[in-house]
Amino acid sequence: MRIISANLNGIRSATNKGFLDWLPGTGADVVCLQEIKAQLSDLSAQMQAPAGYHGYFHPAEKKGYSGVGLYSRVKPDRVIEGVGIADIDSEGRYLRADFGRLSVISLYLPSGSSGEERQQVKFAFMARFMPHMQALMAEGREIVLCGDWNIAHQPLDLKNWKGNLKNSGFLPEERAWLTDVLGQGWVDVWRTLYPEAPGYTWWSNRGQAYAKDVGWRIDYHIATPGIAATAKVASIFKDIKFSDHAPLTVDYDFQP
Asked: What's the per-residue H, E or C state across 6-50?
């Protein structure tokens, strides 16, 4: 089973850059999208359901902001929009699809990089999302949370870690929170497969970060141990730049 996570930084922009043309050749079974920055009325028929896929979306209430989506070859048994917390759900940050004994979730954590107010929003999200992570684990299902977590966990996960110790995305509180998530039994699939490979998925638009590969690993597959153990190979697609993020693909030897 092939699952892709892709922060598009605008689904319309990414489509114009060839994302939907690239998608059919990937062989993906499920594609998790973040930061679609669009309402349903903004999406073309192809964006809503590319050939061979069913499409589901949880847009933000604010136009041109945030929002998540999911494409799947097989129609899900159930789709859940949001976590049931009004201010989180108004920003369109969580979309879950159930397939048999598997749940795949497209997740977009807030960024705190724009200032202290948004950093506090991020901390509030983290505090309230932790019990949800615990509840998910307690369901006893196999679950893959794909998405932009906006946190680089360890020094290996970003190029210039020493210069970012006081910056959002690499703050001690954020890193400790992600450590706590993994301490509950959740598995960071890329890091398990590739203990020494940086695996950058995001590059700043400033300077020549992309050209120089001065990146951050902030896009993850975080999975329950059962399906995580079946992960065979993962890759980051950089041949075409659809966004300031690169799609992260993982192949699982797993049938829902």
From this structure: EECCCHHHHHHCCHHHHHHHHCCCEEEEECCCCCHHHCCHHHHCC
Q: Please answer whether residues 67 and 100 qualify as being in contact, where contact means their C-beta atoms are separated by less than 8 angstroms.
A: no
Per-residue model confidence as pLDDT tens digits over 160-180: 999 999 999 999 999 999 999
If you average pLDDT over every residue of the chain, what do you get?
97
| Distance separating alpha carbons of residues 175 and 151, to the nearest angstrom | 7
Q: What is the pLDDT of residues 20-34, one digit of tens each?
A: 999 999 999 999 999
Residue 140 has pLDDT above 90, yes or no: yes
pTM of the entire predicted model: 0.97
Query: What domains can you pick out in the chain, each with its CATH number?
Result: 2-252 (3.60.10.10)
Catalytic, 98? Answer no
List CB contacts of 45: < 8 A, sequence separation 6 or more. Answer: none
Q: Amino acid identity, residue 87?
A: D
pLDDT at 206 over 90: no
Place of tokens 């932009």: 148
Backbone angles phi, psi at 144, to 5 degrees: -125, 120
Amino acid letter, 215: G
| Residue among 148, 157, 188, 219 flagged as catalytic | 148
- Left if phi > 0, otherwise alpha if psi is -120 to 50, otherwise beta: which for 23? alpha
